[in-house]
Specification:
It contains 11 helices and 7 strands. It is an alpha/beta fold. It folds into 2 domains: about 1-155, Rossmann fold, CATH 3.40.50.300; about 165-240, Helicase, Ruva Protein, domain 3 (Orthogonal Bundle), CATH 1.10.8. The strands form 2 sheets. A 5-stranded parallel β-sheet has the order 2-3-6-1-7, with helices on both faces. It has a two-stranded antiparallel ribbon with strand order 4-5. β4 (about 120) and β5 (about 125) form a beta hairpin.
């Protein structure tokens, strides 16, 4: 489990999945969880669009409040000093890095180097949770990156939801928005059939049906209604996921 890796200060975990599988949502949820904890300093980096390792290192240091530097060496020295002071307080840094498939070999090697910041009595002083497409897994599997791959304690591959998981997600979404679930069992099954259990597509199909419900003034949405909404929406998989 990713949380076990973080709680035990063991280093690095990865979240891997296809487009729309909820990688970013899961990463943001974990970041929010560890942001609220006293023992961790959580940093969210939503994009991996860095041209050089220096840019990645600078972004991490800037988020942590490490004083600006002009070179990679100065930043690494400043970061280590920051981590040692934090470690004295019984705390560690958790970096949540999205779109990690865009990191090249040199950036991945920088991550591996930062994992060397550890104390024998407490564990890693900085940890990473990286989320990315299947390309991230392929990149880590290359010979040049095997040193980092060997340090990945938990590789989480996101799979499409089952029917019951899809229904549970829609129920949860409705609860959060404080609205009754308008879909019949047949309607929920049709959403699952059309979305194939992909979370982003599921919510988009459901949103398209909900929006049409408002115009049609219908209370309960069955399978035929969901299919009609899907057919009349040009690109339901790209629809804005908003109810109400």
């Amino acid at each position: 489990m990713i949380t076990n890796t973080l709680d035990n200060r063991q280093g690095i975990s990865c979240i891997v999945g296809d487009i729309g599988m909820g990688k970013s949502s899961l990463l943001r949820f974990l970041h929010s969880e560890y942001l609220s904890r006293d023992e961790s300093v959580a940093v969210l980096i939503p994009s991996g669009g860095f041209k050089r390792p220096f840019g990645l290192l600078k972004r991490i240091c800037d988020e942590l409040g490490v004083p600006s530097c002009r070179s990679t060496l100065e930043y690494t020295i400043g970061l280590e000093k920051f981590l040692l002071e934090l470690n004295k307080e019984g705390k560690y840094v958790a970096v949540f890095l999205d779109e990690a498939e865009s990191l090249d070999t040199y950036m991945l090697d920088l991550v591996r180097t930062m994992l060397n910041y550890e104390k024998s009595d407490t564990g890693k002083m900085i940890q990473f949770v990286m989320a990315g497409s299947i390309e991230l897994y392929d990149r880590l599997s290359r010979k040049r990156n095997r040193a980092l791959r060997s340090r990945v304690l938990y590789m989480n591959f996101l799979e499409p939801f089952s029917l019951e998981e899809t229904i549970g997600m829609i129920d949860f979404r409705c609860e959060r928005l404080d609205i009754p679930n308008p879909f019949t069992r047949a309607g929920l099954e049709k959403i699952y059939e059309l979305s194939k259990g992909v979370p982003r597509r599921t919510l988009a199909v459901a949103s398209a049906a909900y929006d049409l419900r408002m115009m049609a003034n219908v209370d309960r949405l069955d399978g035929d209604f969901v299919e009609m909404a899907f057919a009349t929406n040009d690109k339901p998989e790209n629809a804005e996921v908003v109810y109400g």
